[in-house]
Write a structure and sequence with these properties.
This protein has helices at residues 3-15, 19-36, 59-69, 142-149, and strands at 44-47, 74-81, 86-91, 98-100, 106-108, 121-124, 128-129, 135-136, 155-159, 180-182, 187-189. By secondary structure, the protein is of the alpha/beta class. It has one domain: 3-Layer(aba) Sandwich (Rossmann fold). Strands 3-2-1-6-9-10-11 form a 7-stranded mixed β-sheet, sandwiched between helices. It has a two-stranded antiparallel ribbon with strand order 4-5. A two-stranded antiparallel ribbon has the order 7-8. Helix 3 links the parallel strand 1 (44-47) and strand 2. The two termini are 22 Å apart. It catalyses: (6S)-5-formyl-5,6,7,8-tetrahydrofolate + ATP = (6R)-5,10-methenyltetrahydrofolate + ADP + phosphate.
Length: 191
């Protein structure tokens, strides 16, 4: 399927989830994330914050658990820079630091900037991913640009409430592949 078709399909799949099913999938996803990611190599983990209306995986619960169980791991969060069409990055200081932008995405209104070279791993937002590690985002390219600016050693971790599709048809050279993807039931590692 094409990115456009997958975007539509997976937005519909997410919106059709009951709150109970959504909560259970998130709980299993977070448990699986903690079982499968090697936190010993991480000093700074970058994570998107979820758009609640589209039922993205609840990274707020994931961040809360990391801060409680792994206080030495610092969390970085993005802010869309509308002037440059890039992401700026800040250390996460707490909920009082956040406000929603025009797309309903929680972002830091202030904070300490995070240099790209400090980031060890990125939790990448996605609508769908395939068995080769390609992903479908929302189509604006913010994360592909950001990941392209990062060093080669950075882990690119996709999280999804659903398993992968076989193949995304219209992948291009600027698309950044995932290192791995975590779902509620499985972990997929890509070359």
């Amino acid at each position: 399927m094409t990115k456009e078709a997958l975007r539509k399909l997976f937005l519909e799949k997410r919106s059709s989830l009951s709150q109970e099913t959504y909560d259970k999938l998130n709980e299993s996803l977070i448990d699986n994330f903690f079982k499968s990611i090697d936190f010993s190599t991480l000093s700074v983990l970058h994570s998107f914050l979820p758009i609640e209306k589209t039922k993205e995986p609840d990274t707020r619960k994931l961040i809360k658990r990391i801060k409680k169980q792994l206080p030495s791991v610092k969390i970085a969060i993005p802010k869309i820079n509308t002037q440059t069409s890039n992401l700026d990055h800040f250390y996460f200081e707490g909920e009082n630091q956040l406000e929603k932008n025009t797309w309903g995405i929680p972002e830091p209104k202030q904070g300490v900037p995070v240099p790209l070279e400090k980031i060890d791993a990125v939790i990448v937002p996605l609508l769908a991913f395939d068995k080769s590690g390609h992903r479908v985002g929302y189509g604006r390219g913010f994360y592909d640009k950001f990941l392209n600016q990062c060093t080669g050693r950075i882990q690119r971790i996709g999280i999804s409430l659903f398993p992968p599709v076989d193949e995304i048809e219209n992948v291009n050279l600027n698309d950044q592949r995932l290192t791995c993807a975590v779902t509620p039931d499985e972990v997929f590692v890509f070359d």
